[in-house]
Amino acid sequence: MLKLDSSHTLKWVSLLGLFLAGCSYQPDDMPKIAPVSGVVTLDGQPLPEAEILFQPASGRASTGMTDENGEYTLLFNRNTYGAKVDDHDVSIITYKQFDQELSKLTAKVTEGDNVINLELKSKPKTKTR
């Protein structure tokens, strides 16, 4: 029968704790990240297949794509969903035409879940003679 004294047990428990802590390691310079999702609309209708970019004043941008319902979820990096807790300039890349002057977008990402819906307006039609 194997008998362990308390000093061996304590060493193994300590090593196991260090191993588990290492598995959840994040770099010290990782900013605070919060989940961000929402719906993008163009003239009140869902905007599918649009790329969303949230760019903070400094640091990595977060990106996402809208689905057929205009819904998106941001990805900070390949393992982390969300965006840096900060103010962001928001860019939307799409094949549809919208008025970027009427649709200057900014967003504030705060701690906790963020639902940020983005509303775009079409470019005004030009009159022809």
What share of the residues lie within helices? 10-25%
Distance between the termini: 99 Å
Quick one: how many beta strands?
13
Order of helices and strands: HEEEEEEEEEEEEE
Contiguous low-pLDDT stretches (5 residues minimum) are 20-25
Q: What is the SS-derived class?
A: mainly beta
Separate helix tally: 1
* CA gyration radius, whole angstroms: 23 Å
The fraction of residues assigned to DSSP E strands is 35-45%
Average pLDDT over all residues: 81
- Mind describing the biggest β-sheet? 5 strands, mixed
Overall, the morphology is elongated
List strands and helices in order, with pairings.
Elements: H1 6-23, E1 33-34, E2 36-42, E3 45-46, E4 51-56, E5 62-65, E6 71-73, E7 75-77, E8 80-81, E9 83-84, E10 86-93, E11 105-109, E12 114-115, E13 118-120
Parallel strand pairs: 2-12, 2-13
Antiparallel strand pairs: 1-9, 2-3, 2-6, 4-5, 4-10, 7-8, 10-11
Provide a descriptive summary of the structure in words.
With 129 residues, this protein is mainly β. The protein has one helix at 6-23, and strands spanning 33-34, 36-42, 45-46, 51-56, 62-65, 71-73, 75-77, 80-81, 83-84, 86-93, 105-109, 114-115, 118-120. The strands form four sheets. Strands 2, 3, 6, 12 and 13 form a five-stranded mixed beta sheet that branches. A hairpin with a 2-residue loop joins strand 7 (75-77) and strand 8 (80-81).
